[in-house]
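Here is one chain, start to finish.
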Amino acid sequence: MGVSYYTVAARLGDPDAQQDLAFCIANGKGCKKDRKEAAKWYRAAVAQGVSDVGLAWIYKEKYQ
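Its structure:
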């Protein structure tokens, strides 16, 4: 249920929801694990000013 709420808020542009949704997707918490989709949401959050410390992997070509 949390993933669905994060998805709605993330699509509306909330950077915290984008980061939380990306965490859930990257780790398979409440949904299927998908690192490419997680990277997309992490990049969206970073574009709005969220720190990307520890997220260097989201910029690798295979996650574009």
